[in-house]
Amino acid sequence: MRTIIVTGAASGMGLATTDLFLRNGWRVLGLDVNPVQASFSGHTELISRVVDVRSRSSIEDAIAEFTACGGGIDTVANIAGVYPPTTIDTYDEETYRRIFDINVLGVVNVAAAVKPYMGEGAAIINFSSVDAFEVSPGQLLYGASKAAVVMLTKSLALELAPYGIRVNGIAPGWVDTPGNAVTGRSAAAAASIPLGRVARPGEVAEWVFILASRRHTAFLTGETIVLSGGAMIRQ
Question: Is the pLDDT of residue 178 over 80?
């Protein structure tokens, strides 16, 4: 049975990814600072743990427990992230640290913790954002953190290629998640997207499944797939 670690598993794209892989017969280790939904309580192939990705030791403990019965890790989906609005006039050091420690250090921590459990054909999928490639007003630090994830993906791909481990990224645009819904900007965002709507979390999860595939993406590494509904065409 194949295995995946999903960070940010309690909501949005992480929740959709957890659901998709469980439905396809994978064992899932779901990590989040919040408990994973009770709707998964009947899935014996899910282990969920309350873990902050800023703590490498907590990640290592969760992985050790998950793999205690033997076997390794086939795929990691680094989805956990935060995006509080910031500008040059409104940011503070605490917010800077929180954004970069979760969005960037978290990716490094998970990759470092899982490396000993991965082998030939394994895959790491890091979540970036279209904000890594275009400027969004009010996202000074978030955009910078997601640009860092793009470069981390390239660097990790180069480092881990000798082990046969692929590392790719996904850069979603607007997605119908609880976090985006509370901004009240989803309708306006949809109107600006050539395909006329925002993405569904399940659509993004499908790309995690594609990038996890040894059959379809065995020769793909170091790349970031942009899922913007055409919003990036003019960039």
Answer: no
